[in-house]
Sequence to fold (257 residues):
Amino acid sequence: MKTLIDLNADAGESFGRWKLGDDAALLPHVSSVNVACGWHAGDPATMRRSVALAAANGVALGAHPGFPDLAGFGRRAMALSPADAADTCLYQYGALRGFADEAGVDLVHVKPHGALYGLTLREPDAATAIAESITKADPNLLLVLLAGPTAERVLADGFPVAREAFADLDYDDNGHIIIEPVPEAKDPEACAQQAIDVLRGGVTSVNGTAIDVDADTICLHGDRPNSVEIAQAIRARFEREGVRTAPMHEVVAARGR
Fold:
């Protein structure tokens, strides 16, 4: 079983007067955070606060670009060419990079959100285009992709990739995550067990199929109603099992490629 892993959270998703998630309570329990960049969620003030919150908690900062779909929270499919997908990520990365630079905080990874994340699985050329685009902006940037064939192919092409698994989402028989339109509370101990299963090399699909997983980082979602309790349960289980958390760039460096 792996004993070093990153625990990341999708956060920074409030918008204007609407608050989504309790980032201040969640971030002390994770080692990396993916901050929405204003297209599927978030706004400039929320982005600024998220950068400050990441810095205050010593959490590695990443951009979480999504489709231009505030009403659908970026979880509705859109047709984008690989070039459009790359531009979408680069544009939103640049917006968050401005706030990070002003605050003197490193921005170390980019993780596509929701349906854009799904696009990288259905269209491998989109994943490659995104990787090419962001590494031209910063050769050290990690691209976060679902652990599996697409991530391994982009890695083999020489791009820095963090391979991701999920503690609070179910998997289908193809090893793809099942994204809920509206997340509901989940059993924290069940999520903690799935995180341990990932460290042991595999998860079980909703139909009972064994799925091999080789991950550098495990995600939970800040918009889930009990995300803080889930994060606490995962960290408690990690402590009992002797698992150490570290930001994903440290985990990838320890991996050696």
Q: What stands out?
A: Residues 34 and 111 are 7 Å apart (CA to CA). The mean pLDDT is 97. The longest strand covers residues 4-11. The chain is about 40% helix and 20% strand.
